[in-house]
Write a structure and sequence with these properties.
The structure is a homodimer of 359-residue chains. With 359 residues, the first copy, chain A, is an alpha+beta fold. Chain A folds into two domains: 204 residues, CV3147-like fold (3-Layer(aba) Sandwich), CATH 3.40.1610; 134 residues, CV3147-like (Beta Barrel). Chain A contains twelve helices and 18 strands. In chain A, strands 16-15-14-13-12-18-17 form a seven-stranded antiparallel beta sheet. In chain A, strands 4-9-7-8 form a four-stranded antiparallel beta sheet, sandwiched between helices. In chain A, helix 1 packs across helix 9 and helix 2 runs parallel beside helix 5. Chain A is globular and about 60 Å long.
């Protein structure tokens, strides 16, 4: 166990925004929320799974919705506490800790807020090792853990709880209600024991995010080529350098969907990259050919600072590097690829691990 | 208290279909469900509110959705039991009885099914004295009773529970989920004590429906002018006789919406009636002029049999009488008209009680 205080939060939010592959919420907003909670309520205990009892119950907390909306509508904090406490009341059992369901600028720190405010520990793991746009896309699903009881709350005080026969139905109902709630809701779900999580979760995600965040922070002041420093720190591959041209966005069914087009720079001059996203970056095509797809991670870094750029932060004229990192092995199984492979998202290509093309 | 057995069910379903003003579900399907439950589990106790303890808790049960879908997709019974039992589990209190939330072919008998299967009593009252298309449109709302905890279940085994800050939010969330559930869901909501219901509910609706049903059944075999017999039995006014021409339907946001056009017969020859509906009949215009609107009841009766015709049952060529009955006084208050008056439904006219035009 170690304590997370204000000094850790910025690194975690920043590093998690890299793992968030463009999604998982705005790191700045998440950082503000969690930092304030630690100032108000004190530091948060971060446990490894091995340090807890196997029977302990852990309930992840997160934001659900279109990150484009979050920039203008900040969660008020009571919403996520309502969602979390509803699950506890419904289960009628004590909840030992919370955790991140995904790595992302906001969704890595939402649980820190909950943990600080409710004086609960947090566990150093998540359910993706990255961010994905839909609820059922967690390693919990591969291991048969139900998303329900699922709870979602808005800033007005509304709470919706559900019990569904599979995790896809949770996604369907929760997505509709998220749209009704203003395209953003705070959620608590995937209650599981520590015993289940030892097998089902992606371990050490918070610490990994923090290390990445520290690297970025040092690189932007000390390094000549911060992108390369960050790329090395995350074990990633260089895919492209370019300037953002058109960004086509649409908010569809509660998601921020679209495509960005990049014109190559330096050794990539003359090439064009198409980046497709649904909250998160899903696929990279260079001159029309698929080069990287889900479930591997696709990350845009600012060429000058090495900082990650979220899908909603992409703007015309930004000079960026596109890097890619291998996903956790759980996503490369047949069950994993059925949940989050390129075909699920409508791309008629087989998944090719990034290291086979760029390693 | 009296017992409802098979012999009462058909009359209640038929009479409630008159009070349902075109909505509230198909009386035939409802009748089949409730009759089978009474055959399987025995007769149902029907209590007046005065016969129960003031502290007794009553939870209404109903179908929510587009009646057009119900004709093809029959509820399986487990769905409504799931919805009802979820509320009980959530409240952690024993529920003494169920009741109808509205008068309608299906929604007057869904609670009979629940009562028979769970061996619970039913109370002789409802929340509308008719049927209305949206959840918040109940006399409970006028009296400050919350729709939540609200529970909805589908035939697959999915259940969604909610706590909302007002009854309009319940309608918003539940309508979206109803669409996801296939445009039909079974619901339990508006938990209230007998003390609250004495003030808030419309009393005696089940018995009234049964009397109307008996009248129709007798009239269609014994009377020369069954429409007139039914009209007199319900205290209604003759508005029009005509032949159904075009019926424009659309399923929109989980509702069956549309307009039917009738060409006048007999003394109404040469006149045209436009009937607008949203699950229920909302407004009658004759030659372009508003003649009857919500909250008064608009009912189509088959000229030959006196039987009510639901919105989904309207077909080209049917010869029908249009009658109208005054609504309960609760709907004629400023609070009532704000909830269910013509302006709420988008008609830019003041409400004029039907007896002022036709009395």
């Amino acid at each position: 166990m170690r304590l997370l205080d204000e000094s850790n939060i910025e690194d975690i939010a920043l590093g998690a925004a890299v793992l968030g592959t463009g999604g998982g919420g705005d790191p700045y907003i998440g950082m503000l929320m969690a930092r304030q909670a630690i100032r108000d309520y004190g530091p948060v205990e971060l446990f490894d799974l091995d340090e807890l009892e196997e029977s302990d119950l852990v309930v992840p907390t997160a934001m659900m919705g279109a990150p484009t909306v979050m920039v203008e509508k900040m969660p008020n904090g009571d919403d996520i506490v309502n969602a979390f406490e509803s699950i506890g009341k419904y289960l009628g059992k004590p909840i030992r800790a919370t955790m991140s369901i995904e790595a992302g600028g906001l969704n890595s720190v939402v649980p820190i807020y909950v943990a600080a405010r409710l004086r609960l520990p947090m566990v150093d793991c998540d359910g993706m090792g990255r961010a994905f746009p839909e609820l059922q896309m967690v390693t919990h699903t591969i291991h048969g853990i139900s998303a329900t009881p699922f709870s979602m709350s808005d800033e007005r005080g509304n709470t919706v709880l559900m019990e569904t026969v599979n995790n896809n139905w949770t996604e369907t109902f929760a997505r509709s209600v998220t749209v009704n709630m203003g395209a953003m809701a705070m959620i608590a779900c995937y209650a599981a024991t520590v015993k289940q999580l030892k097998e089902a979760a992606v371990h050490g995600t918070m610490s990994k995010a923090e290390t990445i965040g520290q690297t970025i922070r040092r690189a932007r002041v000390q390094e000549e080529d911060p992108v390369n420093t960050v790329r090395e720190a995350v074990g990633g591959y260089m895919v492209f350098k370019g300037k953002i041209g058109d960004v086509e966005r649409r908010t569809e069914g509660g998601f921020a969907k679209g495509d960005a087009y990049l014109e190559g720079l330096d050794e990539y001059a003359g090439k064009q990259l198409q980046l497709s996203f649904q909250n998160e970056h899903l696929a990279v095509r260079i001159d029309g050919e698929f080069k990287v797809t889900v479930p591997d991670l696709i990350v845009l870094l600012d060429i000058d600072t090495g900082e990650p750029i979220t899908t909603e932060g992409m703007r015309y004229g930004y000079r960026v590097a596109v890097i890619s990192m291998p996903c956790t092995e759980k996503w490369r199984t047949p069950e994993g690829l059925a949940l989050v492979g390129p075909r699920y998202f409508g791309y008629d290509v087989d998944y090719v691990p990034v290291e086979q093309r760029y390693g």
